[in-house]
Specification:
- The complex is a heterotrimer.
- In chain A, a hairpin with a 2-residue loop joins strand 6 and strand 7.
- Chain A is globular, with a radius of gyration of 19 Å.
- By secondary structure, chain A is α+β, with helices and mostly antiparallel strands.
- In chain A, helix 9 runs antiparallel to helix 10 and helix 10 runs antiparallel to helix 11.
- Chain B is of the alpha+beta class.
- Among the domains of chain B are: 168 residues, Aldehyde Oxidoreductase, domain 4 (2-Layer Sandwich); 201 residues, Aldehyde oxidase/xanthine dehydrogenase, molybdopterin binding domain (Aldehyde Oxidoreductase, domain 4).
- Chain B is 24% helix and 24% strand.
- Chain B has a 7-stranded mixed beta sheet with strand order 3-7-1-14-11-12-13, with helices on both faces. Chain B has a 6-stranded mixed beta sheet with strand order 9-17-16-15-10-31. Chain B has a 4-stranded mixed beta sheet with strand order 18-26-27-30, with helices on both faces.
- Chain B is globular.
- Chain C is of the alpha+beta class.
- Chain C is 34% helix and 16% strand.
- Chain C has 5 helices and 5 strands; from the N terminus they run ββαβββαααα.
- Chain C has a 5-stranded mixed beta sheet with strand order 2-1-5-3-4, sandwiched between helices.
- In chain C, helix 2 packs across helix 5.
- The longest helix of chain C is centred in the last third of the chain and has 22 residues.
- The N and C termini of chain C lie far apart (67 Å).
- The chains are: A alpha+beta, B alpha+beta, C alpha+beta.
- At the B-C interface, helix 1, helix 3, helix 7 and helix 15 of B face helix 1, helix 2, helix 3, helix 4 and helix 5 of C.
Chain lengths: 279, 810, 179
């Protein structure tokens, strides 16, 4: 059977157990481009579109579980209050057409260094839920994304959801590219303030082989912020940007230069933090 | 010479012209333009004639999806063609093994250079490009082999299965080294060297400014990829349905390469999804016909987007060094420039592009002396050729930056400086050619400046309206605003003595219901610009009838020349007019017989011919009972001369002018730009279809904005790094500014209907205007386009950098 | 030319997929297809519906926009064999033969059509926008069509057409509401 169209997760993981080399098809926005450009020749497709349980966003006391087949469009339209940073990031993804098709699970599975949802998921300490006939497991995003377009997913595993812990506090994401819409990120940031834990966390995209955190910058900023007033002075905010830039490890490629990316991610980090504090 | 008004927004330049932005084009409702030949005779308006915003005849099928673009063509028996392209920018082909590909099920033909039966090379001006590479490849993407297969995926796998052994050769990628490097082609590495010496070339000015400028490689990036359907015909020839800009020049090249007589190669225009210069050269034309003849079956070829980027020519990248001399009062004394264009691996139209760059190196200004040295060379970079603006885009970016530097050095307003030096009728350009036609340079500048600036930023501006758009990178306080102006001159039609012409056939007859209708047969390539609409408008007005049918554009009628150089309104519009005139004379002749007035001057009115002396009339339908009237006419423009050894001569037919004022918001820290508004004044002669003119202006500006801030084919060691719409970025609706346009209507003497071509000027000066505005906002020098984010964020300061010798004490 | 990981496959693609799609309310059979075919390819080359255009085949231009289960998507990014049991609506299904929708008519009236290659995709996108947001402001329109590249028009007349339809629909609604 060259294409499997299961309607349940159990059936889906069974397909992968039988054929771990099957091409997993989520929203199609990456996979179909690979096929069109002859970078991938599908032999056996596992299509996930019909599995309702992968399309749900559910909340628990611990946080939010986002099904792998939830699209950017769904997040943007239906979950902006629940997931404000992810909604902001979702709005920057491709075009309206892409956002109606592209999925959070697909973004994780592709694991592009420029993946638009990844910095926020990283900043939120989200965990990826993987399932196979052998059972399920959860991995922090930082452990899941192991390199550019490389993940810790075993061949017979399916990304089924990502778990985002409940968190109080402002969030802001910013994505920079050379066009005002429909563009691949040259640098992006997701800043979240955990006001309960009094922590600052940043995820940075397109400035390293994987999305990056900036632990030193986060710690210094947490120290500098007046958490009761939710304020910080300009020097601290600028220092945060500089420390984030220092934590980046960008490269030169046809989309930009390492020097510019490092600079830009620092500016974005400062601005995102400023906006969180102003919010 | 007067500025003619034609509707509410085409006021004389000094008035407060209403913008056409955000509303239906405000230039509708204008009086119809009577073509010179019929001005006295056609007394009453015919509906949807010249001067009205008549509807496109292809509009309805284009909005329903029924319009057949060349990529939509289908035949039950057709095969799919595909091209194997060189992965190297310069290499010797050691061996090619096609056996595995040929043996693949579903593969019907695999062809190589040795299978080309006729001429082995093609080219627009010099036939220096192999149909298929035989021994050497000179650029990445050069065609090496072609296959035909039952399914496109089979064709793709077949080309992957062809084994080619290459031996890489040394790369020539720096155009500055081309002239002194060993030839990479038997024809040598220099396509053309063109010096221009005008006036006292040793003159100096009180104030001298200089600068070096660079223009990156822009791509036409039309939406409809190259595609065609070829069918073997019964006589051993071939029938080709193709999206192109010039059917006959394709026909001649295909026939030569196939070793067929021209009359066995019949081309019909397939629907064209944009062109902008990229369809002037042969791409897949010969290949798809070769495959059809080799297989005896219809063959369809359709480039992928990546292939399209590699398979057509681009805009020439340019390096330019300029020095402007002026008197203290701002009068230009001398312009010196060295212009180096990178033509890439094959000649295409490089020699003509260089001529334009050199002739218009000083811009639309009076200048007493000029010393210009231009050269266009061969490299192992992608071949470059025609793109909207054709050599003038490059120099306009440089000369307009120079004018701003000069204004700063003189402490003069940049607009004042331009007005002070603006060409006017009777002046000469630096080729020594006098402007015998209209030259409303002052008017276009004043019209652009007269438009209100966009409103000041609001505090509650949504972040998506700021630079960075949906990425939410900027806050209002991160953004600075700037404005800039630029002005351009562009030649219309072909230059340097080329006998340019177009052919049209018009047939007037009655339909079975007794109504007269005309059929227009022209080979003019409709690429979106609206010639099909114009041909109907001309015919309606000239013949006083409403029903005008367009015969398919094909090689069954004489050449219409290329849809390029802003020439089809003038050339093919003129041809249709001439053919209509002949038919018109025939009608009047018949009417004189019917009315029995052999010597009376009769008048053609809508639907009838009238004798004004007696009021007697006869219906056109009645006159056609004697049979149809048909005429085929060629329209040639006034002859031009070549350029002499000093680049002097009356090499051009006519000139069009435009001015653009750009307003931008810039985020200087991140280097992001949002272009808010382009205000423009454009010299159009007469607006024959005002709505279509506005479409050309807005669309041309979009391409100028693209070159200013995002569009560039990135080439590294001869390899294209971004052959995709993911990485070759063109403006989206969120990048396009609002446009406020004023049409300056001064009928051009000698032009059919007084109309000038309008397609190119909007692309030319919009780019430097945007960059000037970014300089204004940031204080950065920005001597290269496209302006990249890092150029703004890290670039050297100096809207007017104090380069060596810039401000001498005189 | 392009880097590709796929190794030469000397047998060619397997043309053995058969399935049914629902296009514009009609069931359409697809037989002997290659598994990797996109919905765009199948619409254009197998089902005689070339209105959806093939400009980039990588989800970067919107020319192939269709509605799939009520959502605007790029049909080049949909695996045709996975569109089984989805409700697909293409530009050909917007208006009965011989008629135009208000959006199509407004594009003509505003002068939004030049080469026209991007237009079918834009028409589908604009219908989707106006169904969701009947009175969009200019920025909303620009954002909504930012996934549809146009190379000819600079979008000016397209934006005009959208505003014209929104105004006309609002006026028509007001007329209906009048007692």
């Amino acid at each position: 059977m060259p294409i499997a169209r299961p309607t349940s997760l159990d059936d889906a993981v069974a397909v992968l157990a039988d054929d771990p080399a099957a091409d997993v098809l989520a929203g199609g926005t990456d996979a179909m481009v690979e096929i069109s450009f002859d970078h991938r020749r599908p032999r056996h497709v596992l299509a996930l579109r019909r599995i309702d349980e992968l399309r749900q966003v559910t909340t628990t006391s611990l946080g939010v579980r986002i099904g792998a087949m939830v699209t950017y469009g769904q997040i943007e339209r239906d979950h902006a209050t629940l997931l404000p940073g992810l909604a902001m990031a979702s709005r920057t993804v491709g075009s309206p057409q892409i956002r109606n098709a592209g999925t959070i699970g697909g973004n994780l599975g592709t694991a592009s260094p420029a993946g638009d949802a990844l910095p926020w998921l990283l900043a939120m300490d989200a965990e990826v839920e993987l399932a196979s006939v052998r059972g399920t497991r959860r991995l922090p995003v930082a452990a899941f994304v192991t390199g550019p377009k490389r993940t810790a997913r075993a061949d017979d595993e399916l990304i089924v959801a990502v778990h985002v812990p409940a968190m109080e506090g402002p969030q802001h994401t910013a994505k920079l590219g050379p066009r005002n819409a429909m563009v691949i990120s040259v640098a992006c940031t997701a800043v979240v303030l955990d006001t309960a834990a009094r922590q600052v966390r940043i995820g940075m995209g397109a400035v390293g082989p994987t999305p990056l955190r900036a632990p030193d910058a986060e710690a210094a900023a947490a120290e500098a912020i007046d958490w009761d007033a939710l304020r910080a002075d300009g020097t601290a905010i600028a220092a945060f940007g500089q420390a984030c830039a220092a934590a980046a490890s960008p490269i030169d490629d046809h989309r930009s230069t390492a020097e510019y990316r490092r600079h830009a991610v620092g500016v974005l980090a400062s601005r995102s933090l400023t906006r969180c504090l102003a919010a | 010479m007067t500025t003619t008004t034609c509707g509410p927004s085409s006021t004389a330049a000094t008035g407060s012209a209403p913008a056409v932005t955000g509303s239906a084009p405000a230039v509708t409702g204008s009086a119809p333009v009577a073509p010179p030949g019929t001005r006295e005779r056609t007394q009453r308006r015919v509906r949807d004639g010249l001067g009205t915003s008549a509807d496109r005849p292809d509009g309805t099928p284009k909005v329903t999806g029924a319009f057949a673009f060349s990529s939509d063509l289908h035949d039950q028996r057709m095969l799919w063609g595909r091209t194997l392209r060189s992965p190297h920018a310069h290499a010797r082909i050691v061996s090619i093994d096609t056996s595995a590909a040929a043996a693949m099920p579903g593969v019907v033909a695999v062809l190589l250079a040795e299978d080309v039966p006729g001429k082995a090379t093609f080219g627009l001006e010099h036939t220096d490009q192999p149909v298929l590479a035989r021994d050497v490849v000179r650029y990445e993407g050069e065609a090496v082999a072609i296959v035909a297969a039952e399914h496109p995926e089979t064709a793709l796998r077949a080309i992957r299965a062809i084994e080619v052994t290459y031996e890489p050769l040394p790369l020539l990628t720096d155009p500055a080294e081309a002239a002194t490097t060993d030839p990479i082609h038997p024809d040598g590495n220099v396509f053309r060297t063109l010096p221009l010496r005008h006036g006292d070339v040793d003159a100096t000015g009180d104030v001298v400014v200089e600068g070096t400028y660079e223009v990156g490689m822009q791509d036409q990036a039309f939406l409809g990829p190259e595609s065609a359907l070829a069918l073997p015909s019964d006589d051993g020839g071939v029938e080709l349905f193709i999206s192109t800009q010039w059917l006959h020049v394709d026909r001649d090249q295909v026939a030569a390469c196939l070793a067929l007589p021209a009359d066995q190669v019949h081309l019909t225009l397939g629907g064209v999804g944009g062109a902008f210069g990229a369809r002037e050269d042969v791409s897949l034309q010969v290949h798809v016909c070769l495959l059809a003849l080799a297989t005896g079956r219809p063959v369809k070829m359709l480039y992928s987007r990546a292939e399209s980027f590699l398979g057509h020519v681009h805009r020439h990248p340019a390096r330019m060094r300029y020095r402007h001399h002026a008197r203290r009062d701002g009068t230009l004394v001398k312009v010196e420039a060295e212009i180096l264009l990178d033509g890439g691996a094959y000649a295409s139209s490089s020699t003509a592009v260089l001529a334009n760059a050199v002739c218009f190196a000083a811009g639309p200004y009076r200048v007493e002396a000029a010393r210009i040295d231009g050269q266009v060379v061969r490299t192992n970079n992608p071949p470059c050729g025609a793109m909207r603006g054709f050599g003038v885009v490059q120099v306009c970016f440089a000369h307009e930056a120079q004018m701003d530097r000069l204004a700063a050095a003189l402490d003069m307003d940049p607009v004042e400086l331009r007005l002070h030096n603006a060409l006017k009728p009777g002046d000469a350009i630096i080729t020594g050619q006098r402007l015998t036609g209209t030259a409303p340079v002052r008017e276009v500048i004043e019209a652009a400046m007269a438009h209100p600036l966009p409103p000041d930023p609001r505090e509650d501006e949504p972040a998506i309206a700021l630079p960075g758009g949906a990425g939410l990178t900027a806050r209002r306080e991160d953004v600075r605003r700037g404005t800039g102006i630029a002005v351009s001159i562009k030649n219309l039609m072909y230059s340097e003595g080329f006998d340019d012409y177009s052919t049209a056939r018009v047939r007037l007859e009655t339909s079975p219901d007794g109504e007269p209708f005309a059929t227009v047969h022209s080979a003019c390539a409709e690429v979106g610009q609206g010639f099909v609409t114009l041909a109907q408008q001309i015919t309606r007005t000239a013949l006083g009838i409403e029903r005008v049918v367009l015969h398919a554009a094909d090689t069954g009628v004489g050449s219409a020349g290329s849809t390029s150089a802003s020439r089809q309104t003038w050339m093919s519009g003129g041809a249709v007019q001439l053919a209509c005139d002949t038919v018109h004379h025939g009608l009047l002749e018949r009417a004189r017989g019917v009315l029995g007035v052999p010597d009376e001057p009769l008048v053609l009115e809508p639907g009838r011919v009238v004798d004004p002396a007696t009021g007697a009339e006869v219906a056109i339908a009645q006159l056609l009972r004697a049979g149809p009237l048909e005429a085929t006419e060629e329209h040639h423009h006034a002859p031009t001369s070549t350029l002499d050894a000093d680049g002097q001569g009356d090499a051009h037919v006519s000139f069009a002018f435009a001015a653009h004022r750009a307003t931008v918001d810039v985020d200087p820290d991140l280097g992001l730009v949002r272009v808010l508004q382009i205000a423009t004044g454009q010299d159009v002669g007469r607006a024959l279809n005002p709505r279509a003119v506005i479409g050309q202006i807005e669309g041309g500006i979009a391409q100028g904005v693209g070159l200013a801030v995002m569009e560039e084919i990135l080439v590294e060691d001869g390899l294209v790094r971004n052959p995709s719409f993911t990485d070759y970025l063109i403006p989206t609706a969120l990048d396009m500014p609002s446009v406020a346009a004023t049409l300056i209507e001064q009928p051009e003497p000698g032009a059919p209907f007084g109309a000038k071509g309008v397609g190119e000027p909007p692309t030319i000066s919009s780019t430097p205007a945007v960059v000037a505005a970014i300089r204004d906002a940031t204080g950065k020098a920005l001597t290269r386009v496209p302006v990249r984010a890092q150029d703004i964020a890290f670039g050297e300061a100096g809207a007017i950098p104090p380069t060596a010798g810039s401000t001498s004490a005189g | 030319m392009t880097d590709h990981d796929a190794t030469p496959d000397l047998t060619g693609p397997d043309l053995s997929e058969s399935y049914a799609l629902s296009i514009n309310g009609r069931d359409r059979e697809v037989a002997d297809a290659w598994l990797g075919e996109s919905l765009l390819y199948v619409l254009r080359e197998r089902l005689g519906l070339p209105g959806s255009k093939n400009a980039c085949e990588q989800g970067e231009c919107g020319s192939c926009s269709v509605m799939m289960d009520g959502l605007l998507v790029n049909s080049c990014c949909v695996l045709a064999a996975d569109a089984v049991d989805a409700d697909v609506r293409t530009v050909e299904g917007l208006a009965p033969d011989g008629t135009l929708t208000d959006v199509q008519q407004a594009f003509l009236d505003a002068g939004a059509v030049q080469c026209g290659f991007c237009i079918p995709g834009l028409i589908v996108s604009v219908h989707d926008l106006l169904d969701r947001a009947p009175q969009p402001d200019e920025l909303e329109v620009r954002e909504a069509i930012s996934g549809n590249l146009c190379r000819c028009t600079g979008y000016g007349r397209i934006l005009q057409a959208v505003q014209d339809v929104a105004a006309a629909r609002t006026a028509a609604d007001a007329q209906e509401d009048r007692p």
